Amino acid sequence: MGELDWYVAYTGVAAELRVAEDLQDRGYPVFLPQHEVWVRRRCKRVKRVRPLFPRYLFVGIDSPDDLFDPRDVDGMQAMLAVDGMPLKVPPGVIAGLRAAIDDGRFNERLPEAVKPGMSGRFARGSFEGLEGVCEAVVGGARVQVLIELLGRKVSVFTAIDDFAIA
What we know:
The protein is mainly β. The protein contains two helices and 13 strands.
């Protein structure tokens, strides 16, 4: 078995798991990136696992001869293609996505965990190690942080997981 080429499959609405299972049953390696999100259920916040890219998943294929007709897979709409040719995912993208998911980089934290006025430090990214003060939580997944950079106060936005409360 040679190196796998990865392709992007486009599914029907909320059909990612069904398509992934069907493809795995047929012997194809499948990668369905997922992340944790917080949703409200009966006035409570609960954690759910959702596809990172709704309606999309990745399919590993040994050779172009192994490509299949998407219409044969229940819930699958098409393969992402350019001029009718399925589009290969560039090398390293799948490994990078897997590493980021394993690190929890796409997981949503509760907005209450970080509040305006709280001090913290950048845990990763371009500003790793710098300290700052949270100015605002934006959409539950990003924060606006005031840092001192080159002797000036600068406001920057980052993923909420990249900013660790002190």
